[in-house]
Specification:
- Helices cover 70% and strands 2% of the residues.
- By secondary structure, the chain is mostly helical.
- It has 2 domains: 1-113, no CATH class; 115-178, no CATH class.
- Strands 1-2 form a two-stranded antiparallel ribbon.
- A hairpin with a 2-residue loop joins strand 1 (171-172) and strand 2 (175-176).
- Helix 1 (2-23) crosses helix 4 (93-113).
């Protein structure tokens, strides 16, 4: 399953890299990236809403059919399908678009939380070598963000290990986006 999201996240990573290089700040890049994704998925959202509205309009008529054919499930299914066809609707019309947006949103999540893999296009071996050089545990959630946050202070040391890295500005309105919140 992770491989599927990786396939989706890889092209999205190139988009995020381009946006970051244009904007120069990770926080602003995430906002622009999210707006772009929302804009791209807008037609799917509109189609889903229309299907939902049509299905809601059909509910009273479906209730009438259910009363009329309460003893004959086959006839009810036949008449309900005819009703859906007459209105150009599908009982599962909104599900397909919802299922399509889920992998895209998870791909976006992967890009934001794993900038080394998807923005800098580093292999797992390269990420591990950088993590080892900075003594960062790779078994915890969000370690790539922490590691990328260290690039600015240790760029000379880390660029000797991997020449594909670039420093990322993780400050956003005075907040460090790589910091893990604690109580």
């Amino acid at each position: 399953m992770s491989a599927l999201f990786g396939l989706i996240a890889t092209p999205l990573g190139y988009v995020m890299e381009y946006i970051y290089k244009f904007m120069g700040n990770y926080g602003y890049s995430i906002i622009a990236f999210a707006l772009l994704a929302k804009f791209i998925m807008l037609p799917l959202s509109i189609k889903q809403k229309r299907s939902m509205i049509t299905t809601q309009r059909l509910q009273p008529k479906l209730a009438e059919l259910q009363k009329k054919y309460s003893n004959d499930r086959e006839k009810y299914a036949e008449e309900a399908q005819r009703l859906y066809d007459d209105y150009g609707a599908s009982p599962m019309g909104g599900c397909g678009t919802s299922l399509l947006t889920l992998p895209i949103m998870l791909g976006l999540y992967y890009v934001v939380t794993q900038p080394l893999t998807y923005m800098m296009h580093l292999s797992g071996t390269e990420v591990s070598a950088l993590a080892e050089a900075m003594d960062v545990a790779t078994n915890r959630f969000g370690y790539q963000l922490s590691l990328a946050g260290m690039f600015a202070d240790n760029f000379a040391k880390l660029s000797a290990i991997c020449d594909k890295i670039f420093p990322i500005d993780f400050t956003f309105y005075g907040f460090d986006l790589t910091a893990t919140p604690s109580l």
